[in-house]
Amino acid sequence: MSDRTASEVVESVSTAFERAFGSAPEGVWSAPGRVNLIGEHTDYNGGLCLPIALPQRTFAAVARRDDDRLRMVSAQQNGVSEVALDDISPEQPGGWGAYVAGVLWALRRDGLEVGGLDVVVDSTVPFGAGLSSSAALECAVAAAASDLHDLGLLDSAEGRARLAARCVEAENDIAGAPTGGMDQSASLLCDEAAALLLDCRSGATEQVPFDLAATGHALLVTDTRAEHALNDGQYAVRRDACERAAATLGVETLREIAPADLPASLDRLDSDEERRRVRHVVTEIERVTLAVDALRAGDLEEVGRLFDASHASLRDDYEVSCDELDVATATARAHGALGARMTGGGFGGSCIAIVPADRVKEVAGAVAAAFEEHGYTPPVSFAVVASAPAHRDA
Ligand code: ADP
Ligand code: MG
């Protein structure tokens, strides 16, 4: 992960733009990565989740073109990716450029007038760490397109939600990654010092105060740097199991199963696998509601207990954890964390822990030592605060 400040990246991405395209960009926009505090694997079940925007952001220096071509350069990738707007498809431009091109494709399909762009991106969000570098990339480009083409979609929550929906389509339909809607909503709608309660059934959002520093605590993110090959396939398998169970139970999504009806619903499923998947989803949605209540009441101990329960449910019922995530969360707890859980899709990626501010170093050190002892790749830990959503920087 990079420690560069926003103004350093704004400057270097502008310089890179001039170098790549021979003139200055019209502006620089950025959008944050996210961590989900609680409510994992609930978005595609019409459930609740509670992400915050990270201080780590992806920056896009952008200028309009006279034709309908899109040219893209990334400080994190080699070469230039290029495509004509009419040719954008799951096959073209392929690679990382699909995340950028997909946004323009989705905006145009929505009837919005969008022309060709030159784009240079640079990012402080680690890739593939479960912190949503893909949504940060899409949302930075969407913000730029909205401003440069006078779409005005950054000016209201409705406009931002519409942009988020287009970014989800970019990721699903052009980049070919079957994700739910949480990441893009977080990147466009989360406020500073707040978590975003996102109802994935109605699309409703609510800001929930989240300022751990005010009570002498910190949110510690640990990128385990573990990447397990099963990742992509397993996500689809979990989604399928949820859809099958919902069909058996005669509901559109598992959101419709109230916690009180869970035991009766489980009795109606005949596979143990589906029972465990449903139990995770229904109890996890309830934990989001409880965590919001606890945050509003200032009861961090309870939030910590809910983190622990969420992790156990993801590990045992949903089976998306891995050894590295289990070791990191257990070590954090043993060294004074109020609670710790994996965050993101699982099978690697990151975990989060609520830690007394004066123990951040100790916990990070203990997790690093535990990883060394187990022979894992060294993890990267950093404290984060709830940060600003997508905006124009320059
Ligand atoms: P995550 O979103 O958890 O970081 P994903 O696999 O969803 O992981 O997205 C990572 C992919 O997004 C990268 O492999 C790359 O294709 C693309 N991407 C993200 N950030 C950038 C960037 N700054 N430059 C180029 N591609 C990027
Ligand atoms: Mg992603």
Automatic annotation (TrEMBL):
Residues annotated as domain GHMP kinase N-terminal: 99-189
Family statement drawn from the similarity comment of this UniProt entry: Belongs to the GHMP kinase family. GalK subfamily.
InterPro entries on file: Galactokinase, Galactokinase_CS, GalKase_N, GHMP_kinase_C_dom, GHMP_kinase_C_sf, GHMP_kinase_N_dom, GHMP_knse_ATP-bd_CS, Mevalonate/galactokinase
GO annotations of cellular component type: cytosol
The GHMP kinase C-terminal domain, residue ranges: 292-372
Stated name of the protein: Galactokinase
Biological processes annotated in GO: galactose metabolic process
Tree of life domain: Bacteria
UniProt keyword list: ATP-binding, Carbohydrate metabolism, Cytoplasm, Galactose metabolism, Kinase, Magnesium, Metal-binding, Nucleotide-binding, Transferase
NCBIfam families per the UniProt record, alphabetical: gal_kin
All copies of domain Galactokinase N-terminal, residue ranges: 16-64
EC number: 2.7.1.6
Species of the source: Humibacillus xanthopallidus
GO molecular-function terms, A-Z: ATP binding; galactokinase activity; metal ion binding
One Pfam family linked to the record: GHMP_kinases_C
Enzyme class: transferase
Annotated PROSITE patterns: GALACTOKINASE (PS00106), GHMP_KINASES_ATP (PS00627)
